[in-house]
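To illustrate the input format used throughout this study, we show a single complete record. The first block contains the structure-token representation of the backbone; no residue identities are included at this stage. The design step must infer an amino acid for every position from geometry alone.
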């Protein structure tokens, strides 16, 4: 035990969300490089107020104070795009803008804008963007909103939140002090690192609140179900040993792991608690610990093997964090079952465990649900099959911004730069266009049309310089182009998780029950559950993402445990004539309630990713529980 504690205690953590993306080392290096070029690690200072002299004074005051912590402050205006623009390439400009007619029309539009009152303020911007890749109307609004801008570059990148948190706190402290000197000004920081820090803090806040609430509810539930406190400690000890085993194995595999992995991995308690729960609940209905083991050991072992197999399906995935999660989950569950099989029986009391039954009417009356009609299973199968055939293809959301937490003010501030950030949509293939094969051809075309419209041929030299500098990059010269590849890979791995988990669970069920028909009966509730989870999520406008996709393995892990116990109970009753399903249902219900409380409570979280975890858990566990207690008894009628 001391070895496990020592290994777990020396494991190091990081908070880089990029670990959850299926990217290669080369792609990670390219993204880091492009983010550096495209200012992803830039922290922007926004000073808003009516009087320009006040804004300038405040800016100089902040600059002086920043010099004491050795962070130089650089000013800019929104018409000066150099801190933010993506590198340009003729291969990354839409085809519709590369014809002579389109270039001529764009230059006429530029001339009209410059002729309007105040249009001269946009001259520097038009020099860098004569083709209108950026919506100038947005900048007209921005330039009239009385804002001053400056920035610093974070030396820690945009995704490492631990170091950036200290930097953001220092910057905020300085601006808060300056804001007291200039009460008429609104002063704030924004940018990728600031939002990343806000995300990390929101996750920690939500986690603390939800874990505190769920811990209280779970303790109350266990206190009600197990009047004897000794049983609480046995459950806690079993899960703790498994947790330490997972941490120790993870330390052997890697010295550093994402803190988010352990945060998500904490919900494994909902699965690991199954093992001591089944033993303690069943102890109430037997005369000895040995009899309890004889009656419960088989479904416990089979359930553990199939669940571990489902989590091991994460290990071959490209995302580092998901591989680590698969290793951690498998080791934790193996450690828990070993403790429950070889140690826990020696600690259990020889007397029957006192338990108060928990009843939920639809579950307690499941026999009536089963007796409704033999056509129920056929109807569910038919509807599920039709849904799979016609299912929507947008069930996975690979857009990371949808699972980011931002305040309303941050969204408004980031909207200032959206026209720039979204100014380039890279071409998906690397074919060289026949009309514009290189930057020089495009430059010559713009020069000719500029002269025809009335501009000097060199009026757009800043734009030409960018084209010349990046003419050798036909593809993947922006973060968005690389992330589009990652999105495709994420979607493919979404299908991989479902297929491989299903295959692993079914094969182990077949080996355990030694009959194809019994394996099919145990697997059918999970298959139908998965179909209905997808259908209900679609009806509720919910999508899987890189965070809640992990619940696919959790749902399979819980679902196969429940159905295995029900099938084993049915076989035991048929073989011995002794009723055993009521106690199996009781332990399943306790386990499901703990899982629903432990993860479903996240539906009250503010952070979008954590909220989605809670929503998917509530939907998934409710369906899995209902299917597990109704489908196998109905199907067993057809098996002799």
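Output of the design step:
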């Amino acid at each position: 035990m001391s070895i496990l504690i020592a290994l777990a205690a020396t494991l190091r953590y990081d908070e880089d969300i990029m670990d959850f993306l299926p990217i290669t080392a080369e792609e990670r290096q390219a993204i880091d490089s492009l983010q550096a070029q495209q200012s992803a690690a830039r922290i922007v200072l926004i000073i808003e107020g009516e009087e320009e002299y006040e804004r300038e004074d405040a800016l100089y005051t902040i600059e002086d104070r920043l010099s004491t912590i050795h962070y130089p402050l650089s000013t800019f205006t929104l018409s000066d795009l150099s801190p933010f623009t993506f590198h340009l390439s003729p291969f990354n400009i839409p085809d519709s803008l590369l014809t002579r007619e389109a270039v001529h029309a764009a230059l006429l539009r530029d001339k009209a804008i410059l002729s309007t009152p105040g249009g001269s303020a946009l001259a520097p911007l038009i020099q860098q963007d004569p083709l209108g890749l950026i919506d100038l109307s947005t900048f007209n609004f921005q330039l009239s909103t009385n804002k001053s801008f400056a920035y610093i570059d974070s030396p820690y990148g945009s995704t490492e939140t631990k170091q950036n948190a200290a930097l953001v706190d220092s910057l905020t402290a300085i601006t808060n002090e300056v804001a007291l000197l200039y009460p008429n000004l609104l002063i704030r920081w924004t940018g990728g690192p600031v939002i990343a820090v806000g995300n990390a803090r929101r996750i920690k806040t939500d986690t603390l609140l939800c874990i505190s609430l769920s811990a209280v509810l779970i303790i109350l539930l266990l206190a009600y179900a197990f009047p004897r406190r000794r049983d609480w400690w046995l459950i806690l000890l079993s899960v703790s040993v498994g947790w330490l085993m997972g941490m120790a194995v993870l330390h052997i595999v890697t010295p550093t792991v994402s803190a988010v992995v352990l945060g998500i991995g904490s919900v494994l308690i909902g699965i690991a608690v199954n093992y001591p729960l089944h033993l303690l609940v069943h102890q109430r209905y037997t005369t000895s610990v040995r009899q309890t083991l004889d009656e419960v050991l088989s479904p416990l072992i089979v359930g553990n093997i199939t669940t571990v197999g489902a989590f091991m399906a994460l290990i071959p995935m490209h995302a580092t964090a998901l591989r680590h999660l698969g290793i951690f989950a498998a080791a934790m569950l193996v450690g828990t079952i070993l403790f429950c099989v070889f140690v826990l029986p020696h600690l259990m009391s020889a007397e029957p465990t006192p338990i108060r039954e928990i009843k939920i009417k639809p579950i307690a009356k499941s026999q009536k649900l089963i007796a409704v009609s033999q056509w129920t299973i056929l109807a569910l199968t038919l509807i599920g099959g039709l849904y799979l055939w016609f299912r929507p293809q947008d069930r996975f959301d690979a857009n990371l911004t949808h699972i980011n937490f931002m305040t309303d003010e941050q969204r408004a501030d980031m909207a200032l730069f959206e026209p720039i950030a979204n100014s380039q949509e890279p071409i998906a293939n690397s074919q060289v266009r026949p009309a514009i094969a290189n930057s020089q051809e495009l430059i010559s075309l713009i020069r000719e049309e500029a002269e025809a419209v009335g501009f000097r041929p060199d009026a757009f030299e800043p734009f030409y310089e960018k084209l010349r500098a990046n003419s050798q990059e036909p593809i993947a010269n922006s973060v968005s182009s690389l992330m589009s590849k990652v999105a495709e890979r994420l979607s493919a791995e979404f299908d991989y998780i479902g297929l491989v988990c299903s295959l692993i669970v079914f094969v182990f069920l077949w080996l355990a029950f030694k009959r194809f028909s019994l394996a099919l009966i145990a697997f059918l509730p999970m298959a139908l559950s998965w179909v209905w989870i997808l259908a209900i999520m679609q009806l509720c406008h919910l999508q899987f993402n890189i965070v809640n996709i992990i619940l696919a393995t959790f749902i399979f892990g819980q679902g196969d445990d429940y159905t295995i116990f029900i099938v084993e109970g049915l076989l035991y009753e048929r073989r011995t004539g002794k009723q055993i399903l009521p106690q199996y249902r009781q332990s399943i219900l306790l386990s499901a309630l703990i899982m629903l409380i432990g993860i479903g409570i996240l539906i009250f979280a503010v952070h979008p990713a954590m909220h989605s975890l809670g929503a998917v858990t509530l939907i998934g566990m409710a369906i899995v529980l209902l299917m597990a207690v109704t489908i196998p008894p109905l199907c067993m009628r057809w098996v002799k």
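Structural context for interpreting the output: Residues 81-87, 419-436, 472-477 have pLDDT under 50 and may be disordered. Residues 41-197+407-477 form one domain.
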